[in-house]
Amino acid sequence: MPQTKFFALIIGTEILNRRRADKHFDFVTKALAQKGHKLSGSFIIEDDPALIVQTIKFIASQSNPVLFSFGGIGSTPDDYTRKCAAIALRDGNLSIHKEAKEIIVNTLGDKAYPYSVRMAELPKGATLLENPVNKMPAFALDERYYFMPGFPEMSHPMVEKILTNLIPNKRTYYRHTLTALCKENVFIEVMEKMPKEVEFSSLPKLYCDGWKVSISVASTNEKLAFESFHMYIEVLEKKKIVYSLHDENNEA
């Protein structure tokens, strides 16, 4: 099976107009890093049904995707995500999920009507995600598309539980970094030889005393990571370029 590609979809006009600050991207990247994984993409989009559908479809078209979607599953008129997920991943229809309705009614009583009970209208085949705060369930499709509330205190524990199930064992990533007193084009020939199993990046920065570049090389293959990194070292030593084995771009 191809390597899993993780995506975050953060839905909310209030984030784009800066009425609220996003807290999901930072959390998801850290949670994945603790498991030895990373995001392949992250999207912050407004409350636009067509855009939501198109973004979900794009993510679903990727190889072996897992989606963490935040926002838009409530009962107000601007909560489009449930319907959009049905359009993008199912037949476009929503139907009452009996268990979700039972949870909502048992939790809220008469206050579940007429609006909150709408949150039980879900796409076909949806499974429920437990909400640790107010019990209003989120939902998943195909055990790879997870649709959660926009509230971090509700959704972040859900993500942690999902990742525990998806990735029971941490994947070890072997990373090597350096900072060199040169421009990144010194390494172009080496970069062109990097194996596809190796993740590499070069982050140049212009200081008052000249250019510096931070090189990062990583792989789940320890030997390959070491050998690939030393290809950069060989270039630096051959050209007598000063370098140090740390990453200035990650210093506080």
Description of the structure:
The chain is an alpha/beta fold and 252 residues long. It has eight helices and twelve strands. It has helices at residues 13-16, 24-33, 49-60, 81-89, 98-108, 152-166, 188-191, 222-239; strands at 5-11, 39-45, 65-70, 94-96, 121-123, 127-129, 138-141, 145-148, 174-180, 199-207, 210-219, 243-244. The strands form three sheets. A six-stranded mixed β-sheet has the order 2-1-3-8-7-6, sandwiched between helices. The protein has a four-stranded antiparallel β-sheet with strand order 10-11-9-12. Strand 10 (199-207) and strand 11 form a beta hairpin. Helix 2 packs parallel to helix 6 (152-166) and helix 3 (49-60) crosses helix 4 (81-89). The longest helix has 18 residues, at 222-239. It is elongated, with a radius of gyration of 23 Å. The relative contact order is 0.12. The mean pLDDT is 95.
Q: Which SSEs are present, and which pair or pack?
A:
Elements: E1 5-11, H1 13-16, H2 24-33, E2 39-45, H3 49-60, E3 65-70, H4 81-89, E4 94-96, H5 98-108, E5 121-123, E6 127-129, E7 138-141, E8 145-148, H6 152-166, E9 174-180, H7 188-191, E10 199-207, E11 210-219, H8 222-239, E12 243-244
Parallel strand pairs: 1-2, 1-3, 3-8
Antiparallel strand pairs: 4-5, 6-7, 7-8, 9-11, 9-12, 10-11
Helix pairs in contact: 2-6, 3-4
- In one word, what is the shape? elongated
Given helix and strand content, the structural type is alpha/beta
The largest β sheet comes out as: 6 strands, mixed
Q: Give the number of DSSP strands.
A: 12
